[in-house]
């Protein structure tokens, strides 16, 4: 899955935390995406967010496919959270929309 595919799929499935801006920063050449629950959109922009989740692209692919648990990734240091941890906790629900 490319980043563009991910953005499109998340937009189609309303994969965001309602009323919150969550940035997923993949680092490196993959950059970041914003899940803007306030505006009801997903974009490849980079900007301010209530919560920033830093995760490598390969680890993100495993999370999205259900092969890696979010809490396990966090405990292993594969996923880092800056800002409101409550928004990050809701990420499991966002990811489930991608598998649906």
Walk me through what this model shows.
The chain is about 40% helix and about 25% strand. The chain has 5 helices and 5 strands. β2 and β3 form a beta hairpin. The radius of gyration is 12 Å and the shape is globular. The protein has about 100 residues and is an alpha+beta fold. The chain has a 5-stranded mixed sheet with strand order 3-2-1-4-5.
State the gist of this model.
This protein is an alpha+beta fold and 100 residues long.
Protein topology:
Elements: H1 3-12, E1 21-27, E2 31-36, E3 41-43, E4 51-55, H2 57-65, H3 70-75, E5 79-83, H4 85-89, H5 91-99
Parallel strand pairs: 1-4
Antiparallel strand pairs: 1-2, 2-3, 4-5
Give the count of helical stretches: 5
CATH superfamily label: SCP2 sterol-binding domain
CATH topology: Nonspecific Lipid-transfer Protein, Chain A
Characterize the biggest β-sheet.
5 strands, mixed
Helix content: 25-40%
Which regions have little confidence, pLDDT < 50, spanning 5+ residues?
none
Spatial strand sequence of the major β-sheet: 3-2-1-4-5
Strand/helix succession: HEEEEHHEHH
What proportion of the residues form beta strands (DSSP E)? Answer: 25-35%
Q: What would you report as the Rg, rounded to the nearest angstrom? A: 12 Å
> Would you identify the CATH architecture?
2-Layer Sandwich
The CATH C-level name is Alpha Beta
SSE-based structural type: alpha+beta
